[in-house]
Amino acid sequence: MTKQAEGAAERPARRRGRRPADEVRADVFRVVGEVLLEEGIADLTFERVARLSGVSKTTLYKWWPSKGALALDGYFHAVEETLAFEDTGDIRADLTRQLLSFAHLMTRTPAGRVLTELIGQSQTDEDLATAFRSLYSSGRRRLAGERLLRAKEQGQIREDVDVQVLVDQLWGAVYHRLLIPDEPVTDEFVLALISHLFDGIAPRPGA
């Protein structure tokens, strides 16, 4: 959201009376998500979010202890639908679809830059680090783990496999390339991760 367009984007005068908290939060998430995905975290401030959302700074500070925590919450809601984990009954297809969606979001939209900025700031912002683990990383890990456990129950994954290790193998590899970009995150890379996971790397008999 460019600063030039902010005048038109400001919310109209509110009706009298207290609005439901969910409605207030939705306005904040909308504004924070737009600013982050268009500009990044540098120009995100409580003052700017208050002006664009029509929510007081007092309310913002009551709900979010730091700019980083506010940014993370807005980011999470902005990408939540895109990163939803489907269950079609085919774990390989579902992992492929989800990992490709994640890679596309991280490399073809501003979301990737925002996420790396949030990870960087979380190293010195304790509130953000706590929020990152509780709201984003642990939530993403839980969703993936639940899907993999269902696949194990259906006999699509061996009983002795630790599904949390699988999460680290797949998403950890993508995060590594995002944060240390010696090599790009491409569709070919994602498909190779899936292939190596399911097909293995040992030589095939007779090869």
UniProtKB/TrEMBL annotation:
InterPro entries: Homeodomain-like_sf, HTH-type_TetR-like_transc_reg, HTH_TetR, Tet_transcr_reg_TetR-rel_C_sf, TetR_C. Residues 45-64 bind DNA. Residues 22-82 form the HTH tetR-type domain. Keywords: DNA-binding, Transcription, Transcription regulation. SUPFAM superfamilies: Homeodomain-like, Tetracyclin repressor-like, C-terminal domain. The keyword Transcription regulation applies. The keyword Membrane does not apply. PROSITE patterns: HTH_TETR_2. This is TetR/AcrR family transcriptional regulator. It comes from Streptomyces levis.
